[in-house]
Amino acid sequence: MLRHRDTLRHVYGWLLLTPAAILLVAFTHYPTVRTVIDSLFSKGSAIRPSRFIGMDNYRALLDDPVFWKVLVNNAWFALGTIPTSIILAIVMALLVNRAIPGRSLVRMAYFTPTILPMIAVANIWLFFYSPDIGLIDQITALFGVSSHNWLGDPSTVLPAIIVMTVWKEAGFFMIFYLAALQNIAPELREAASLEGASRWYYFRRVLFPLLMPTTLFVLINAVLNSFKLVDHLFVLTKGGPDNASNLLLYYIFESAFSYFDATYAATLTVILLLLLALMALVQFFLLDKRIHYR
Amino acid sequence: MNATKTRRLPSVADALETTGAWLLAIVWVSPLLYAFWAAFHGSEHAIRFDLTAPLTLDNFRAALSQAPFLRYGLNTFALVTMLLVAQFVICTLAAYAFARYSFAGSRLAFALVLVQLMITPEILIVENYATLASLGLVDTLTGIGLPYMASAFGIFLLRQTFKSTPKELEEAARLEGCGMFGVLMRVYVPLARPTYLAYGLVSISHHWNNFLWPLVITNSVEVRPLTVGLGIFGAPESGVDWSIVSAATLLSVAPLLIAFLLFQRQFVQSFMHAGIK
């Protein structure tokens, strides 16, 4: 009787999991494995079918200047957006964590960009950055500065996109800090002021260390986002000028759906998957450390 | 007495901080306010901030006549609804299995589920496109939704919630004759309502705004969601008027934005709730 119930437990468990398992295997695990296999084959055509070529795609990748370009761009994009967004998010959270007049309005102002689609954000910011007629150029013209094509100049296009992304993301990260701040005992603050600690000292030695787990969580999310967020490129730059704003996932899209080279796109995807796997490992070890702290 | 008095005195630092908070808030909403300005004024006033400039709805009319935004909106609405229902059902069943049935291989299976937190479907656009093409689901709403229906995030959130449900409640329900599904529907699901609300709001905003995968898998007006329609409409090479693009942008974000403004508390708390778990 007991054995029977035990068997049933396994059967029920797997039955309940089946719908999710089928979908996850079909759209996550199978395509992941398939990507690796496809990256070892040549691009097929009508007259020449795709054939096994081993590591040739990877050799082509290493010789592809665009690949290195998008990788470096991705690194700059991450470096440009993440620290700034995190600092702003902490500042915002501290500002609205106190009783100030109109607190919920202020909090809403910070959070609103988060619920806008990246495409809409890009549409709005496109006009700021347009040469001559754009808002930035209109304002700088008042001060006699000549017009500048922010998105058309390889040296300003990435910073322009970074500023926009920080605007979009800071409010999102703010709410995680707000949640964390609400869990910090107010007695700490009182104790610190009794000891005569300055506010900066209190932040640096008490608050910031206590917010560390949140910062790690936000950091990992931000890094992941920096690889997944490419929607704005479709509206703003299409990766241009001369790939100056191109990012890895956008290059994958281009390779597959503009150049119709699915196997090279698969090779690029493998690199992206490796980067994500690396991040998973970092997360695993960092979060492991966090448990020791507690 | 003395101590409370000094604390209550509004210091210069406090006033500065409040001003700073407000200034930052104004900077933060100004791009959006600007889009409103442009959308409700003729293009000749788009960059001239004359408060007496006449308001107009012409830009909205033009946007609606140049692209089928109502149809796009309907598509998005249908997509988001379908996904939400499917995610609730599929994730609930899987989360219940992980939380209360320690079946053989459940730990490994759970680890494999969590892989999707890292490798989200949009990373695998190339292979997923091929899969959906072989299923004949390219350019269908089901095609857009299918890769997202089993959500690792949803399974994880619900599993955490189900695990914290007291076992005594389940035993009581069993004594009253509830079977496996009875216990799930009468005990676990009702007690997880805050989690469903949180996950639902996060899912709705995510899929309302999702762009890359829908762009890849759709190619007709009948299935294209708002974001893809807007992306095509706003592309610089289509050469449309700036004020009209602003109007179209506002039309696309309006439903979610209004919902957010009305239920601000729930939205913010849901995102917090979903992030902390």
Instruction: Let me know the average pLDDT of chain B.
Output: 86
Report the span from N to C terminus of chain A.
Answer: 44 Å
Strand content of chain A: under 5%
Spans of chain B of at least 5 consecutive residues whose pLDDT stays below 50 are 1-8
Number of strands of chain B: 0
The class by helix and strand makeup of chain B works out as mainly alpha
Q: Radius of gyration of chain B, rounded?
A: 24 Å
Protein chain pair with the most extensive contact, residues per chain: A-B, 89 and 89 residues
Q: How would you characterize this protein structure?
A:
The complex is a heterodimer of chains A (294) and B (277). Chain A is built from 13 helices and no strands. Chain A is mainly α. Chain A has a single domain, classed as MetI-like (MetI-like fold, Orthogonal Bundle), CATH 1.10.3720.10. Chain A starts with a helix and ends with a helix. Chain B is built from 15 helices and no strands. The longest helix of chain B has 32 residues, at 69-100. The two termini of chain B are 42 Å apart. The interface between A and B is large, with 89 and 89 residues.
Topology at a glance:
The complex is a heterodimer of chains A (294) and B (277).
Chain A: H1 2-38, H2 56-62, H3 65-96, H4 103-111, H5 118-129, H6 135-142, H7 157-182, H8 186-194, H9 199-210, H10 212-228, H11 231-236, H12 248-257, H13 262-293
Helix pairs in contact in A: 1-13, 3-7, 3-10, 4-7, 10-13, 12-13
Chain B: H1 2-8, H2 12-39, H3 58-66, H4 69-100, H5 106-118, H6 125-134, H7 141-149, H8 152-163, H9 167-175, H10 180-191, H11 193-209, H12 212-217, H13 226-234, H14 242-262, H15 264-276
Helix pairs in contact in B: 2-14, 3-14, 4-7, 4-8, 4-11, 4-13, 5-8, 9-10, 11-15, 13-14
